[in-house]
Design goal:
alpha/beta; three-stranded mixed sheet
Length: 566
């Protein structure tokens, strides 16, 4: 019926800011890159790691993370055409992308966890500072968090749920993070060289990226503003810390993002890829480019300039995409000389004039997650399409709650499931909790086996993120030393790993996102997350609250099916 259809609103980029070692505004950053300047250099600071390493660190300010974020939002507004800031912010949602936030506040010996370590508190402080009228969202989905946040914010605007969003991606170069990546032996002893035959690992960095998205065109000063045309999220369902060797997960996300945007692969001028310079990531991306029929587009990675800035990377690198489209330039992948990936892709080490009106930004991360989003100049973007709002039917639910004896309780649940896999016992407690609940729902609904893997998804939330395992990692490096950091522990210091575990075990390859919400939002979490699932192309979704801190655990999951899905 026609009443079930809505016309999507166009989503404009009204302003942006990059705050990094290369500068404190987008213009400063891009001017540095045009001069082939990199923020990556040797860092000799034992508060970060016990021996020198290559990384990109902001050293020209005395701001904490919250102050950097507020500065960046202010700069983004300043380069927009927003005149009435009070009214604007009353109608605006903050979508905050981060992996660890202010994790330096964590001390494993403290009886009480510092309030700054809770990601939701940081987001609420920022929203309160700007007097935003809508409660903020935090997305902590490993390295796709930034792209995921832009996709989420744009969907809210498309459907008229809110008229504006400020998307912020921010992470710090911290002792916690550096020791974890060093434990994986993934940090290069030199500046990273994505896609090159001599690449040998990533370079870490820190930054803040802020983007203003809006349905109001006149909030942009550009005569031909950039618009967000559509995005998609997928899961490899293959491995927690390594990408699929075939590139199918990312490739499908890229295809789906183009399908949602209503564009063909011939219209894509360049692909701004994740490009970490690790062996398997870059191999996988070359295959994903071909999977999506984008081998004719130029592929670039900008991580040799900023390093891998984690939750900030997708936002910062998206801003660079906007700049390239508007300035008819293509930025080179610094240091690239000889292609070293199995599938032929078009990579350039130098900058050049390049007229492109549309591009794709991609990201991949721990837990097997992938994200892809299409950006274009308004002049080539089609008028918004209509979409049909499809309802959901509740099929089943599962709950588990307590404040003691978690270990024995979860083992009994595992016995009831007759799960004999040793992998279960290697999981952290949050993943044991979430995967157990999902397994009961899936076991009780065998018809799920007939649902295509890419149509099954997961949306979960909690308040404490992965703090339970964060404390374990922090304790190891505080007591045993940096070199004793465990990759088996560190990988679980991301809350979306619980989603990855479920995806791998049950072959869920559709959209998957982990949100961090205030505790008082718990009772409304199902409705909120179901709304986000409604914006996806999923036919089946498991949604719920998955919280564990200390011995206290609280799980409630619900299984939904689209009303029109047979």
């Amino acid at each position: 019926m026609e009443v079930d259809r809505i016309v999507k609103k166009k989503v404009y980029v009204a302003g942006d800011c990059i705050y990094s070692p290369l500068g404190l505004t987008t213009t400063q950053n891009l001017n540095s890159i045009l001069s082939y300047k990199s923020g990556i250099d040797e860092i000799d600071d034992t508060t970060l790691y016990y021996k020198p390493f290559q990384g990109s660190r902001i050293i020209n300010d005395n701001y904490d993370l919250e102050e950097r974020i507020n500065f960046s939002i202010n700069e983004a507004v300043a380069c927009s055409n927003i005149l009435d800031m009070d009214t604007f912010f009353k109608e605006t949602i903050l979508v905050f992308s981060t992996t660890k936030g202010d994790i330096d506040a964590l001390n494993s010996t403290d009886e009480q966890i510092d309030e700054r370590a809770f990601l939701s508190n940081l987001a609420q402080n920022i929203a309160k500072h700007w007097k935003m009228g809508i409660s903020p969202l935090v997305i902590s989905n490993a390295c796709i968090s930034g792209v995921n946040s832009i996709i989420t914010a744009s969907r809210l605007i498309e459907r008229g749920i809110c008229p504006h969003a400020v998307v912020v991606g921010a992470d710090l170069l911290s002792h916690f993070v550096v020791t974890g990546f060093q434990a994986f032996h993934s940090i290069s002893p030199t500046r990273c060289i994505p896609y090159d035959s001599s690449r040998d690992g990533l370079s870490l960095g820190e930054a803040v990226g802020a983007v203003i998205l809006t349905s109001q065109r006149d909030f942009s000063k550009d005569t031909d503003p950039v618009v967000v045309e559509g995005g998609a999220v997928s899961n490899d369902a293959n491995h927690l810390s390594a990408p699929s060797r075939t590139g199918d997960g990312l490739g499908e996300a890229m295809l789906q993002s183009m399908n949602i945007a209503g564009v063909s692969h011939e219209t894509i001028g360049f692909v701004n890829a994740h490009g970490t310079a690790t062996l398997y990531n870059d191999e996988m991306e070359s295959k994903a480019v071909h999977w999506a029929n984008l081998q004719g587009a130029v592929v670039q990675s900008l991580k040799p300039y900023w390093g891998h800035t984690l939750g900030a990377s997708g936002v910062v690198e998206s801003i660079a995409c906007f700049w390239q489209l508007k300035n008819k330039m293509l930025l080179g992948t610094l240091g690239f000389k000889e292609l070293g990936v199995p599938m032929s892709i078009n990579v350039s080490g130098g900058h050049k004039a390049f007229k492109s009106t549309r591009c794709i930004k991609t990201a991949s991360g721990f837990g097997g997650c992938n994200a892809s989003v299409v950006y274009a100049l308004e002049s080539v973007s089609e008028e918004p399409s209509t979409i049909q709002e499809r309802g959901w039917k509740l099929i089943d639910s599962y709950s588990l709650k307590g404040d003691k004896d978690f270990g024995s309780i979860i083992r009994e649940c595992n016995k009831e499931l007759n799960n004999k896999s040793m992998k279960f016992f290697k999981m952290d407690d949050l993943s044991k909790l979430g995967s157990t609940g999902a397994s009961f729902l899936i076991r009780n609904n065998p018809w799920l086996d007939d649902v295509p893997s890419n149509c099954k998804g997961l949306f979960m939330a909690n308040f404490s993120s992965s703090l339970n395992t964060d404390i374990k990692h922090q304790r190891i490096i505080e007591i045993d030393g940096d070199s004793m950091a465990s990759p088996a522990v560190f990988v679980y210091t991301l809350p979306n790993i619980v989603l990855g575990e479920i995806c791998i075990e049950h072959k869920f390859q559709g959209e998957n996102t982990f949100f961090i919400l205030p505790e008082e939002k718990k009772d409304n979490a199902i409705d909120m997350l179901l709304g986000f699932a409604g914006h996806s192309n999923l036919n089946v979704v498991i949604i719920g609250w998955c919280e564990l801190i200390g011995e206290k655990f609280d799980l409630h999951l619900e299984l939904f099916k689209r009303l029109d899905y047979e």
